[in-house]
Each structure stands twice: as structure tokens, then as C-alpha cells.
Amino acid sequence: MNATPRWLDPEQKAAWDHFIRMQEKLVGRLSRHLQSDSKLSAADYVVLAALTESEGGRMRFLNLTRRVEWEKSRMSHQVGRMAKRGLVTREECPEDGRGAFVVATPEGYRAIEEAAPLHVEHVRRLFIDALTQEELDTLGRLSARVLAHMEQQPD
Amino acid sequence: MNATPRWLDPEQKAAWDHFIRMQEKLVGRLSRHLQSDSKLSAADYVVLAALTESEGGRMRFLNLTRRVEWEKSRMSHQVGRMAKRGLVTREECPEDGRGAFVVATPEGYRAIEEAAPLHVEHVRRLFIDALTQEELDTLGRLSARVLAHMEQQPD
DNA sequence: CTTACGTAATTGACGTGTCAACCAAAACGG
DNA sequence: CCGTTTTGGTTGACACGTCAATTACGTAAG
């Protein structure tokens, strides 16, 4: 039994609170904008962005999940929903009988090409424009550091 | 028709990508830890934290939603689920017939007091420990700036 | 060959979040 | 007062995410 847990000191707590609230508000607004401006959710956007940046708009299922760092069941459900709406299709993989490809359809391409400009505007308006170029770099660098730290850390 | 949208330049895009990936990975891990270490979800934790930091463990519904910056329907569903599990109760509001109070039950207190130490450890391990005190301050300051920027911004 | 084990991906159940519609009490304007 | 609008809060339908279990194929060992 840990007698007295090591609480965060006031400066740490303040930094954490600001970060968490900012992050939540930002991603919340962005995904609501996406949803109402286009017919894509944030999840749809991420998947289509990954696919369309890839050779032929196709990717192996597992590579896709790693690329966007999702769990495979999440991706499977997502791909299922997107397939139902005609944004992607599943294809079999010749060299591995268990494998699958996920492929962006022409509609998928159309959808993300339509959605991207406005989305980028919102990212710019809500996030990029809040900071100077130098501050933005700093934030990016610190984010990368936290990311690297987490990757060296168990689970 | 916008001829050529203003895309992010490479540095901006890099900063944005790092931030987004970091944030997603961090909150994902933290909420999975909460879920498996305690019997609270991240949402439960946020609500109970707000309530138990407040006089008498009770708050007006709307104040609660503003405090954690959620939409009211989200809060209503959440409170409903938590009430079903005995973590909170709803009470009527005498001075406003439409109003409601949300109150943390003893079990609610017990649950968050049990969950908090481990949760804080994870926050420390995954986030705080990744940065020096000075870097952490910087990140907090930049987050606050983005937050303030968003608050001055339409929707 | 076959048994066993690991890997690729799907499924189902359930908790969670969003949107739009709704309801009831309050506040306001005549 | 009475009708209208605003405010506080709930509801239902549906999209989304997680976990645990499952299917089906690949691979290596005896």
C-alpha cells in the first residue's frame, strides 16, 4: 500500500490541466467541423488520408492500423462502416491467405479531396494561428519528445 | 471555389502531426489504464473529480457541464450511467423547478479515492517524466495560449 | 503428416459521444 | 394575466471504441 501518493505539484498540475483541456477542446471542435462541413468523421478522414497518401490508395490492413496507431478491431469496425458507405473496399491478399487490403474507392478520393481544404483551414485557424512559428516548433518538438518517451515505456 | 487552399508548410505539418499523435496515444493509454486499474472510465473520473472537489460533493447540472466543458446531452447520458452504477445520484433543485443537482455518493468518493493515486502515477510516468520542469512549463503555457485563442474564436 | 502455436483479421456485446427532437419550468413582453 | 421565447435538462437513434472470443491461415517441431 502506497502511504502517500506523489501528487503533482501545482505547476505540474497546471501544465497538465491546460494541456488536457486544450487538447480536448481542439479535437472536439475539429471533428465536429469535419462532420458538418463534409460527410466524413475524424476517423474517416484519418483512414482516407493514410490510404490516399499510399501507392495506389491501398494498404495492407495491419500496416494501416500501425500507420495510424489504432487497435485492429477498431480499424476493422471502421473499415466495415466505411465500406458500407462506399468509401473503401476490402480486397484479398494473394501472398497471405489471412491478409486483407483496404483500398480507397474513387468516392473515397473525392470525399477526402473535398474535405481537406476546409479541414486544414480549421486546423490553421484554431491551432496554428494561435502561436508564432517558433512556438509552434517548440510545441512540436515537445510533443515528439513525449511521444518518444511513451514508446520506450511499457505499454 | 477556392483555387488553391493554403496547405500547411512542412514545419507546421510536422508540428501538427507530432502533437496529434502524441495526444491520441497519451489519452488512449491513460484511459485504458484507468479502466483496467480501477472500475472507472476516463469520463467517470472527470465527473467524480469535479464533483468531489466541490462543496458537499454536489453541483448543479449545468455548472458541472461547464466545468468540464461537455455538452449537456453527453453529461446527461454519463450521469445516467453513473447513477445506475451508484456513483452519483440526481437531486431536484428547490429554487428552480427544471434544475437538477448531481451528487457524488459515498461509493463515488471511494471509487475516485481509490483510482486517483494510480492514475496520477500514470500521468507522471507517461507525460510529466518525459520533460524537464522547464519544458513542462513551456508546454503548459503554449497549451493555455491555444486554449485562450480558441475561446476568442467563433464556435 | 499432424499437432501445436503464432499471426491476420472479424465479430458481438457493451459503454460512450453526437445530433436533433423534445419537455417542462421560467422569464419576458404586451 | 396570457402567449412567446429562453433555459435546464432528458431522450432516442445512431456512430464510434474497447474488450474478449473466434475464425482461418501460416509455420515450425516431432
From TrEMBL, chains A, B:
Record InterPro entries: HTH_MarR-typ, MarR/SlyA-like, WH-like_DNA-bd_sf, WH_DNA-bd_sf
Organism domain of life: Bacteria
Molecular function as annotated in GO: DNA-binding transcription factor activity
Residue span(s) of domain HTH marR-type: 1-148
Pfam families per record: MarR_2
Entry's Gene Ontology BP terms: response to stress
Name this polypeptide is given: Winged helix-turn-helix transcriptional regulator
Species for this entry: Streptomyces lonarensis
Lineage: Bacteria, Bacillati, Actinomycetota, Actinomycetes, Kitasatosporales
